[in-house]
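Re: [help] complex structure
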Amino acid sequence: MTPVSGPLFIFDLDNTLYPPEVSLWRIVDARIERYVQEKLGVDPATAKHVRKSFLKEFGTTLRGLMHHHGVPPVEYLDFVHDVPIPEIVPPRPDLRRMLSGLPGRCVVFTNGSESYARRVLDALGVSDQMEGIYGIEFMEYIAKPSPYPYTKLLQATGATASASLFCEDVRENLVPARELGMFTVWVGGREESSPAHAVVRDVCDLPGVLDRFLEPKFSGGNR
Ligand SMILES: [Mg+2]
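Output below.
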């Protein structure tokens, strides 16, 4: 894609576009746990241990299952994302307002599947505000925080890293974005130990830190 000018706003999905008080991610996480137990025929404690080692070695449970157990990714994703999302995720008019005020394109960048992300965005009421959804299929199952999907995302959107802002709740996932040159915002993070340029309590507080991202690059004029 040829380079596109103007800022690109990149959003993680779970616990970023909705707060952790919404229990969706905990429910998905419990289904991942159950999938590992059933697939491998192990007890909960062993499943926990296996998952921990997969996360350490591969970044996601799915990659470990694919590598060591030949699990088909579609089967796994369908199982773990089989959740009644509209019953769990309420609409967020405040998020809709915030996104509509952003001076650039918005995309979702998630380790979840694209159809899951679409259902969550529908429930939040912000689907039409996202130019694209870049999920685990787009990443070729090489999830964040591997640097690969970040560079692939920039290529696909035609954005430069320096014109991109990335919002995310998982600390480690911010690091490759910052190393690439994106402006990084840690949603729900802690100022003291932040690897990000800015910390916000909730994604709807993003406008409060935008000046630091926009001014040096998009204010025009040489100062
Ligand atoms: Mg997240």
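Strands lie at 8-11, 105-109, 132-134, 164-168, 183-187, 198-200.
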